[in-house]
Amino acid sequence: MPRYKMTIEYDGTNFVGWQRQKSGLSIQQVLEEALEKFSHTQTLIYGAGRTDAGVHAYAQVAHFDIPYIMDAFKMQAAFNALVRPYPIGVLKIEPVSDDFHARFSAKKRSYVYIILNRRTPAVLDFNRVWQEGRHLDEKIMQKAALLLLGKHDFSTFRDSECQAKSPIKTLDEFTISRRGDYIFCFVKAKSFLHHQVRNMVGSLSLVGMGKWSVKDFQQAFLANDRTRGGPTAPAQGLYFQSVSYED
Amino acid sequence: MPRYKMTIEYDGTNFVGWQRQKSGLSIQQVLEEALEKFSHTQTLIYGAGRTDAGVHAYAQVAHFDIPYIMDAFKMQAAFNALVRPYPIGVLKIEPVSDDFHARFSAKKRSYVYIILNRRTPAVLDFNRVWQEGRHLDEKIMQKAALLLLGKHDFSTFRDSECQAKSPIKTLDEFTISRRGDYIFCFVKAKSFLHHQVRNMVGSLSLVGMGKWSVKDFQQAFLANDRTRGGPTAPAQGLYFQSVSYED
């Protein structure tokens, strides 16, 4: 069957997350229902990353199979017309070979976590950033974040409901920079544990506030124990940024 | 009476604009009502720029007088608590001398107009950009925009309801740049005619699409006639960016 790769932007605020769940509406469900309407086939859409409720995507990637060839441009227009009431946009559709798998072929996943570091509540970025009024020193946060690079046991930043077989992951990038009141945390890895990014950012925020030293952070990390970690940063600051399928 | 300068961010989507109007809720009204609640005085708040319905602000500036001295930090917190249901945030309050006037002391006003130049509807930027699916050549738009720099009659870009005495304005900056699918139009002047920025951007978009040559644009501009100009770009792409009170 012809296989298609799709790239999707969404505002995760009012969804239960990417993946279908009985508890409410997911991005996956909206897209699968749109696909069924215009293609008259019931098909699963597989995403590269299962974003949580409230987490956004600049460029989620997914794939699906349909029993006949359709023009990618027309499919994109059909998707965008049918998902219209929802904050979901299909940026691109392209035919791919049938050994392409959005999730299993992914070589690197990139996320960005955005903190609005000011006392005034978020206005233009409401539901799109973590607004934190206490001053955060992004330079000391960057210093602590560098300890996470490479292959490690990330149990301290792993949610208790994480289904991964192993807590060992390899982190390729953790760059923290400030522009005005905004702090951007860029992370990249082949894959992440459940809540790993939000838990890393939450612990780093304690360092940024001066509640933890870099050494405290390091000890929490090396303890391989979630109860030693800091809080989970809120979902609304997190964006699935991109997926790479190249080595 | 002590005078205070305030800096305000807002999402203009659901307002009739900055200025009080009988037809609906304005940003000015929300702020004046909040001020009345915590200061127990009825006072006008004067804005630096009268943004239209749907136009946003990163940093609108305004001033007001109250009959006693109040801590600026506490006032800011009171404003932000009281405007809470609305997408308005007070970024800063500072005491100023009583000859400061948010509107009349302003030396330069900066706006940015944001175009999302892609076929997919705006998602994360819904109501925050002008989404235009036809490709725009930002380099040729920049070339045409340079013709507007300096002191000119801007009648071609002046709304019929404009109350300014003269159509002569001096434009100090018009910079157009692209980042991915986003085109940013930065403009700066002491002051603008009603709808001037949106009318300039609307006409430039015709150049960007290839419907007008730079020469067509120049001839429309020199005609000093609104009926020769292009369409008015939609409000949701426009942001009041900053005001300068320095020479």
Query: Quick check: average pLDDT of chain A?
Result: 97
Major sheet characteristics of chain A: 10 strands, mixed
How much of the polypeptide of chain A forms β-strand, as a percent range? 25-35%
| Tally of separate helices of chain A | 5
Radius of gyration of chain A: 19 Å
> What is the helix fraction of residues of chain A, given as a range?
10-25%
Ends apart, CA distance between termini of chain A: 26 Å
Shape of chain A: globular
Number of strands of chain A: 10
Structural class of chain A: alpha+beta
Structure explained in plain terms:
The structure is a homodimer of 247-residue chains. Chain A has 247 residues and is α+β, with helices and mostly antiparallel strands. Helix content of chain A is 22%, strand content 29%. In chain A, strands 1, 2, 3, 4, 5, 6, 7, 8, 9 and 10 form a ten-stranded mixed sheet that branches. In chain A, strand 2 and strand 3 form a beta hairpin. In chain A, helix 3 packs parallel to helix 5. The longest helix of chain A is centred in the last third of the chain and has 14 residues. The relative contact order of chain A is 0.18. The mean pLDDT of chain A is 97. At the A-B interface, helix 2 and strand 4 of A face helix 2 and strand 4 of B.
